[in-house]
Amino acid sequence: MTFVHRVAADSRYLLLSFPLALISFSLIVTGLAFGLGSMVAFIGLPALAATALVARRFADVERAALPGVLDAPMERPDYAEAPVSAGWFRRVMNPLASGQAVMDLLHAIIAFPVAVVGFVVTVTWWAGAIAGLMSPLYAWFLADLTDSQSLPSLLGLGDSPVLAVVFNMAAGALFAVTALPVLRGAALTKAAIAQALLTRPSYPQRTMTTRTPATGLY
């Protein structure tokens, strides 16, 4: 994968993870609070089961995005199915019957702060790179509109508009050059948490070979 494709894939993953994590976190925390708070009532358990089902759907979305970041196939854990002869209550509570439900709920809570950090890092690096490299197009216009001092002048390097443009472009180039390791690290951190909580190892399938006895004259 080329530099541009890698940065684009990691940026897309980090930017889209924030709204998904925000919605997931809000729904899961609300569902858990409501379900646990009304545990003594009949509605508490079905509310927890519905929350686990919602967490499973968000986990499926996360699992679908992982191969693009980790460059490896991800296996979906097995979820227990309700028996054919199960009654309506057993079917309603079935999302809680699988141990993976706890991992899905835990991921919805843990992934939110990680997604926030990844989103902020991504926006900061893209804004720094674009604003810095494009500074020759707008720096002169802003210098005539405002009386604020540029960063080079604050550092005692001079108050020349040319120096300010060169400084901004150098900062933008630094953001652009370091975008790959920084965004890659942020994407791998979030993806590693999701992989540990939401997937199981993918083993290559082995084909059974039958060995025929050798024949010959002795």
Helix content: over 70%
What's the tally of helices? 8
What is the number of E strands?
Answer: 0
Q: Please tell me the total number of domains.
A: 1
Quick check: average pLDDT? Answer: 84
Spans of 5+ residues with little confidence (pLDDT < 50)? Answer: 205-210, 214-218
Summary tags:
single chain; transmembrane helix; membrane; mainly alpha; disordered C terminus; transmembrane; 8 helices; 0% strand; Putative sensor domain-containing protein; 218 residues; Put_sensor_dom
What does this protein look like?
- It is a single chain.
- The protein is mainly alpha-helical and 218 residues long.
- It has one domain.
- 70% of the residues lie in helices and 0% in strands.
- It contains eight helices and no strands.
- The chain has helices at 3-37, 44-70, 88-92, 100-133, 135-145, 151-154, 161-177, 179-198.
- α1 packs across α4 and α1 (3-37) packs parallel to α8.
- Mean pLDDT is 84; it is low at 205-210 and 214-218.
- Residues 13-198 form the Putative sensor domain.
- Keywords: Membrane, Transmembrane, Transmembrane helix.
- This is Putative sensor domain-containing protein.
- The chain crosses the membrane at residues 12-34, 40-59, 108-141, 161-183.
- It comes from Nonomuraea glycinis.
Summarize the structure.
With 218 residues, this protein is mainly α. It is built from 8 helices and no strands. α2 crosses α4.
Element layout with pairings:
Layout: H1 3-37, H2 44-70, H3 88-92, H4 100-133, H5 135-145, H6 151-154, H7 161-177, H8 179-198
Helix pairs in contact: 1-2, 1-4, 1-8, 2-4, 2-8, 4-7, 4-8, 5-7
InterPro entries: Put_sensor_dom (IPR025828)
Keywords: Membrane, Transmembrane, Transmembrane helix
Organism: Nonomuraea glycinis
